[in-house]
Amino acid sequence: MKIMGMISGTSFDGMDIACCEFEQVGDTIEIKQVGFESVAYTSKLHQLIADSMPPREITMERVCVLDAQIGQEFSSAAEKVMKRFDFQPDLIVSHGQTLFHWIDAAHVARGTLQLGEPAWIAENTGVSVLSNIRSRDVAAGGHGAPLVSILDHLLFNASDHAEGALNLGGISNITVAGNELNSIAYDIGPANGLMDAAIFAFTNGEKSFDKDGELAAHGVVDTELLSKFLNEPYYALPAPKSTGKELFHLPYIVANAGEVETWNLPNLIATLLELTVETVSREVERFKLAKLYIAGGGSANPVLMNRLSQRLSNCEVLSMDALGIDPRAKEGLTFALIGFLSMNGHAGQVPSCTGARGERILGSLTPGKNGFSIPKRNLIKPVRVKII
């Protein structure tokens, strides 16, 4: 089955799109990676999303505009990637763009909102679309995150020792799995999100991220400020747990580091990078992991990767490509995998990772030009994946 997985993460810089072919052989899902491309949002839409992120309050008119325009850009990106790789998918899985993740005062997930109307994708590509991926898990008592844990669980659940998989997007999240463990996953805290927000604000939108970690490399960590950041109560919460822009946003930085115009930007970015390193390292050490496989945009930041390797002297820090997975494509591949599982009647999440009451089939379908095409289902529950 040919599936395209699409997602724009908490950094909201664009759409990561993975084209994959799936076949289930016995209890193993074999995945072939056909192609990957990251397609940036237009600058106008990127600015509109940035101006709509928490803690800003927006109108229903803005929500409607964003829903349509994000859907249209996902549609355009899907068509572009289909043409580039000569890839005609049987299904497109669109995560869309998270605008709000509702966590109440008791740290229970009550709702989640991803925008990007799938009808635009189905209308313009003619392909059926699976969307609204997180909500079923939330309705079942879970956090709807981290959903990437389904791939990690299927990769590592038969390992003799605990294996760790870390995603460094806007938020860092980790999965720990192994043969003698109940797989666990949760959001650790900020990864690129706070750094990106600081750079975007300080440069008045001229820059949106720290290319190759250049700013952090020229900065000095402010240990006093780092201690203030590390006192965040979220870090002490038990897993499963999730977080996002609702907590880690520009006003959060200002509350700790002062007004934007007072910043020494390289020093602030070095400090925020060290915040990611320290919060991740504490979790890795808690599980005594010998290996940590890293994916996401942060895996392309050499300063961040080097600092993690230095800090985690007893753990081998590896890119996800050591397992045959393009680290940039992991989330897109995961949502394509969730689409394959859903279409075959299998759960797309791991309850011990999300906190849900049980396994759930994920997503809502929007028909393509020929209506729904449901494959003959493989009734054998998959227990592992193999990258071919």
How is this structure best described in words?
The chain is an alpha/beta fold and 388 residues long. It folds into two domains: 2-143 and 362-387, ATPase, nucleotide binding domain (Nucleotidyltransferase, domain 5, 2-Layer Sandwich), CATH 3.30.420; 150-323, Nucleotidyltransferase, domain 5 (2-Layer Sandwich), CATH 3.30.420. Helices cover 35% and strands 23% of the residues. It has 13 helices and 13 strands. It has helices at residues 43-50, 60-84, 118-125, 135-139, 149-156, 192-202, 214-217, 223-230, 250-257, 265-286, 302-311, 330-343, 351-354, and strands at residues 2-8, 14-25, 28-40, 91-103, 109-115, 129-131, 163-168, 171-177, 184-190, 291-295, 316-319, 364-366, 384-387. Strands 1, 2, 3, 4, 5, 6, 12 and 13 form an eight-stranded mixed β-sheet that branches. The longest helix is centred in the N-terminal third of the chain and has 25 residues, at 60-84. It starts with a strand and ends with a strand. The relative contact order is 0.18.
